[in-house]
Design a protein that fits this description.
single chain; mainly alpha; Alpha-Beta Plaits
Length: 272
């Protein structure tokens, strides 16, 4: 039963958020939204525990498609980082600000970058590409994320400073164009660097939030040194170049871990 503690904790956290927001905002949507996401993640972890091969991909599709198609395209909510800035500037704690607070700013203190492994609609597509483990050494291009982060902030700030009309319509178009650009750049980089997650490592502006917060994550991969035989299989399958055999918080690329569990699945000694 011990192995089911984590999915239950995650479900309880999501339900707590769902009920709190439903009652405080008097909006039933929040109950549906966070319950749906929590149950999808719960289901995925249960499938993983039961060793179902495609468990993570199922959660990615359940949550990613829901957010991209239903929230983004049908409900016209910009859930990209521009949407976060937009709601922040308008001073409204709604949609993207709530999403960012839960999934990308405070949530990572508990579940690290679980968002990146299980829910992101950009990675949902990138993970179908052929380079599941990087075929080239990591590049020193992480600085680009600060440029894209600043660009997204400046773009939205400029709309407000210039008193642009129809900002909501612009935000919807920005969502569509932004996603097309993310997919295009992500796919090109994946093939150029032979690494499905190159976009996540170098370009994604959201990692400016995710990396520092996930440093303190409660949920993290740990190595049982008594069982480990230093075979190195875990590092070979890691899509994010993490040194998961080092238990310190300062492990190599520690804030890159997306909790995909590939290392755990491939360890011959059950040391992770
Ligand atoms: S790094 Fe960015 S693009 Fe990659 S999975 Fe995380 S949020 Fe999505
Ligand atoms: S795969 Fe397992 S045994 Fe091999 S190095 Fe990694 S943790 Fe150790
Ligand atoms: S393989 Fe292990 S260390 Fe690497 S990202 Fe996945 S869970 Fe994290």
């Amino acid at each position: 039963m011990k192995k089911y503690v984590l999915p239950v904790i995650i479900l309880v956290v999501f339900e707590a958020v769902a009920v709190t927001l439903w009652l405080t905002k008097d909006n039933l949507f929040y109950l549906f939204n966070f319950s749906y996401i929590g149950i999808s993640i719960f289901l995925g972890i249960i499938l993983f525990i039961r060793k179902y091969k495609h468990a993570r991909r199922i959660v990615q599709l359940l949550v990613g498609l829901y957010m991209l198609v239903y929230l983004g395209i049908i409900s016209r909510e910009n859930m990209q980082i521009e949407g976060f800035w937009y709601y922040l500037f308008t001073g409204v704690f709604e949609a993207a600000t709530i999403h960012y607070a839960v999934a990308k700013i405070f949530g990572p203190l508990i579940f690290g970058r679980g968002w990146c492994g299980f829910a992101c609609w950009t990675a949902m597509v990138l993970d179908f590409l052929p380079y599941k483990t990087p075929k080239q050494p990591r590049k020193k291009l992480g600085w680009i994320r600060y440029v894209t982060f600043a660009a997204s902030l400046l773009f939205v700030a400029a709309l407000f400073l210039t008193h642009t009309a129809n900002i909501e319509r612009i935000m919807f178009r920005a969502f569509l164009i932004g996603n097309i650009l993310y997919y295009a750049v992500g796919i090109i980089l994946a093939f150029a660097f032979k690494d499905n997650r190159a976009f996540c490592k170098y370009i994604c502006p959201i990692t400016v939030f995710l990396k520092p917060m996930s440093y303190f994550s409660l949920v993290r991969i740990k190595c049982d040194k008594d069982k480990c035989v230093d075979c190195g299989k875990c590092k070979k399958v890691c899509p994010m170049n993490v040194d998961m055999t080092d238990n310190s918080r300062k492990r190599l690329n520690g804030t890159e871990c997306i909790l995909c569990m590939e290392c755990v699945k491939n360890c011959p000694k059950d040391a992770l």
